[in-house]
Amino acid sequence: MKDLALQLKNITKSYIDGESENIVLNNINLEVEHGEFVAIVGPSGSGKSTFLSISGALLSATSGQVIIGKNDITKMSKKELEDIRRNQIGFVFQSHQLIPYLTVLEQLKLIPLLSGKNDKDSENYAKSLLEEFGLSHRTNYYPEKLSGGEKQRVAIARSLMNKPDIILADEPTASLDGPRGREVVQTIRDEIKKYNKAALMVTHDERVLDLVDTIYRIENGNLTLEKRNVAI
């Protein structure tokens, strides 16, 4: 039996444009297992960002079903969706989106704080993640003092603070050169394998696709399996 972190069933997303209907996603189905790293590739305007937003409970589908872990989020209230995003999803954005006036350690501690937790266990977990990511020497640094690769590693560490079922990464290498971009994707891969999480990454960066387990292509609103690098 599959151990699924994310399921999308018959997902359609459309908008009314004047007198016509613009279909962004057309009856999409996807399953992502714990321990699996999935990449979504496709041209600009193909629906990748919409796809990721629906997967992360940031946008509702026109029709279809989204299941995160064991929770069907399709008909959840706004408050319930906020709880899902806060507790079961880790987000890594194209821009690291670090808060400029918080230190590296404070960036991580903010996540449990938003859920009403401010205990020693959270701080110890944050410090252990920073050590794991090779950032212990940057604990008290502010973002302006970090390199681009360090900022993204902080962002990935932050995404793990809520111990999510799934990490959603939106073009995480977009602002990085080749070696640093590869390092960031390798870090995501290492973490999901170590903690048996799942990751879904939208990317244009063909150079890192050998690091993922499964590659899907989205085009004209349709999702197709392109390649499996390993047997899942």
Give your account of this protein's structure.
- There is one protein chain.
- The chain has 232 residues and is α/β, with parallel strands linked by helices.
- It has a single domain (4-225), classed as Rossmann fold (3-Layer(aba) Sandwich).
- The protein is 31% helix and 29% strand.
- It is built from six helices and ten strands.
- The protein has helices spanning 48-55, 78-88, 104-114, 120-132, 148-159, 178-195; strands at residues 4-17, 20-33, 37-41, 63-68, 71-72, 89-92, 166-170, 198-202, 214-219, 222-228.
- A six-stranded mixed β-sheet has the order 6-7-8-3-9-10.
- Helix 3 packs parallel to helix 5 (148-159) and helix 5 (148-159) runs parallel beside helix 6 (178-195).
- The longest helix has 18 residues, at 178-195.
- The protein starts with a strand and ends with a strand.
- The model has no long low-confidence stretch (mean pLDDT 88).
- InterPro entries: AAA+_ATPase, ABC_transporter-like_ATP-bd, ABC_transporter-like_CS, MacB-like_ATP-bd, P-loop_NTPase.
- It holds the Pfam family ABC_tran.
List keywords for this structure.
single chain, 232 residues, alpha/beta, Rossmann fold, 6-stranded mixed β-sheet, 4-stranded antiparallel β-sheet, 6 helices, 10 strands, 31% helix, globular, MacB-like_ATP-bd, ATP hydrolysis activity, ABC_transporter-like_CS, Hemin ABC transporter ATP-binding protein, nucleotide-binding
- CATH architecture identity: 3-Layer(aba) Sandwich
Low-confidence stretches: none
Estimate the mean pLDDT confidence. 88
Spatial sequence of strands, sheet with the most strands: 6-7-8-3-9-10
Fraction in helix: 25-40%
Strand content: 25-35%
**What best-fitting shape do the alpha-carbon axes yield?**
globular
Q: How many E strands?
A: 10
Number of helices: 6
